[in-house]
Amino acid sequence: MDVDISSGPAFAMGVVTLPPGGSVRVEAGAMAMTRGDITIETSTRGGFMKGLRRSLGGESFFVNDFHSGSGGQVGVAATLPGDMTKVALDGGTALLVQSGSWAASDPTIDVDSKWGGGKSFFSGEGLILLRCTGTGDLLLSTYGAIVPAELAAGETMTLDTGHVVAFDETVQYAVRKAGSWKSTILGGEGLVTDFTGPGRVWLQTRSSFDLIEWIKRVNPQRSSGS
Prior knowledge:
The chain contains 3 helices and 18 strands. It is mainly beta. The protein has one domain (about 1-220): Double-stranded beta-helix (4-Layer Sandwich), CATH 3.60.160.10. Strands 3, 5, 6, 8, 9, 10, 11, 12, 13, 15 and 18 form an 11-stranded antiparallel β-sheet that branches. Mean pLDDT is about 85; it is low at about 50-60 and about 115-120.
C-alpha cells in the first residue's frame, strides 16, 4: 500500500495512491476524499456471516473497495482526532486489532472478528478484537498519538484496556482488575491487560472510553420527567 500520512499526530489523514488497476479496502464511512479515476464497490466481503461478525465486533457490516483503472488517490480519516500508522503483514502471524482502529488495508488482507478467544477479551469495556491475516499492509487509526513497542520473549507490558490498539497474535494476554476492588472503584482504574512477548504491541495515548465518561460527567442526560 502506497500511503502518505499527514497532519498527525493530532488530525492524521492517510492518502492512499492507487496505481492503474489498483484497489484498497476501506472501513465504511472512513473515506475523506478521492482524486482521479476512482470507483467504489460496497459489499460484506466474505459473505453475510463475516459481515455480521465484523458488525458485532464494532465495525460496519459493510466495507468499501475503491478501484482505479488509470490511477488515483483515496484519502482516509478516522472519527476521533489522532494518528495513523501503516503495519505490514507477511502472511504468517496474524494481527489482532481493537474494533474501531482498522481504517483500511490491501484487498489481500482478511479482516474478521476473532470469534472464540476474542469474545471475552475486554468484555467489561465493550471492546472486541478483529483478526487480520494475509499478505499486505493495514492502515490503523488511533485516538491520540500511537506508540509502538516490541516485546522480547517473556517480557511483559501492562496497558489500560482503553489504550490498546493492536498486537501480534504471538503475544499472550490476560485481562484483570487494575488492583483491589477499592482501587478499581475509587481509584478510577478499571480493567488492565498484561501482554507478554514475543511480538509487537501498539498503544494509543488517549482512551475513547475515558472521553465518553468525561462527556457523561459534564453533560449528564436529563430524565424524561424533567
